[in-house]
């Protein structure tokens, strides 16, 4: 395991933080994800609010099985001090219907001094696509 990236961020360390987050999400190992967040982390994902590290795993275990053939790309938008903003796009197929979706949006992160994420605020939209329209 490599050393945790801590704020204040440089452009290089902020970009690496974004890449690490993309890699973890694409790996889809839900039990690994909570370890990157503070005990009292606060999440907003669309209309879902998660408070505390203990809420992350149940959220992922409910959501991720629905999103089959998932692929995500994150791009750093901005950074300053202990905050990073990201825009993202993901594509996935709904487990029950087979319908393909493209999700896109913005994330705003606040990182604690120890490098754990304390706030993750995500605004996202889902758009139906055909399999042939996939780009990821």
Helix content: 10-25%
Rg (C-alpha, Å): 15 Å
Q: What oligomeric assembly is this protein in? A: single chain
Q: Strand order within the widest sheet?
A: 2-1-6-5-4-3
Largest sheet: 6 strands, mixed
Number of helices, counting only DSSP H or I runs of 4 residues or more: 2
Total count of domains: 1
CATH topology: Nuclear Transport Factor 2, Chain: A
Identify low-pLDDT runs.
Answer: none
Shape: globular
Produce the secondary structure layout.
Elements: H1 11-27, E1 37-45, E2 48-51, H2 56-63, E3 67-80, E4 83-94, E5 100-111, E6 117-129
Parallel strand pairs: 1-6
Antiparallel strand pairs: 1-2, 3-4, 4-5, 5-6
Task: Tell me what the structure shows.
The chain has 136 residues and is an alpha+beta fold. The protein has a single domain (11-133), classed as Nuclear Transport Factor 2, Chain: A (Roll). It has helices at residues 11-27, 56-63, and strands at residues 37-45, 48-51, 67-80, 83-94, 100-111, 117-129. A 6-stranded mixed β-sheet has the order 2-1-6-5-4-3. A hairpin with a 5-residue loop joins strand 4 and strand 5. The two termini are 28 Å apart. The mean pLDDT is 96.
